[in-house]
């Protein structure tokens, strides 16, 4: 169980970092136009991570 949780956290952090690194590539105008999209995507990751932790907590509390 601990190994699975660690793997999920590593994958989430890796996906977040990859998204942020890839969003900085391209020409200058494209970077300016996508700043809001990057912010929105970062907020989505934060919400998904929090919901994932809650779901794992619920699973551990009631099903293990």
UniProtKB/TrEMBL annotation:
Domain of life per record: Bacteria
Key words, A-Z: Membrane, Transmembrane, Transmembrane helix
Ranges that cross the membrane: 42-62
Protein's name according to its UniProt entry: Uncharacterized protein
């Amino acid at each position: 169980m601990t190994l699975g949780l660690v793997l999920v956290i590593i994958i989430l952090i890796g996906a977040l970092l990859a998204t942020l690194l890839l969003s900085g590539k391209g020409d200058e105008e494209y970077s300016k136009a996508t700043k809001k999209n990057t912010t929105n995507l970062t907020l989505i990751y934060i919400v998904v991570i929090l919901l994932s932790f809650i779901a794992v907590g619920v699973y551990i509390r009631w099903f293990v």
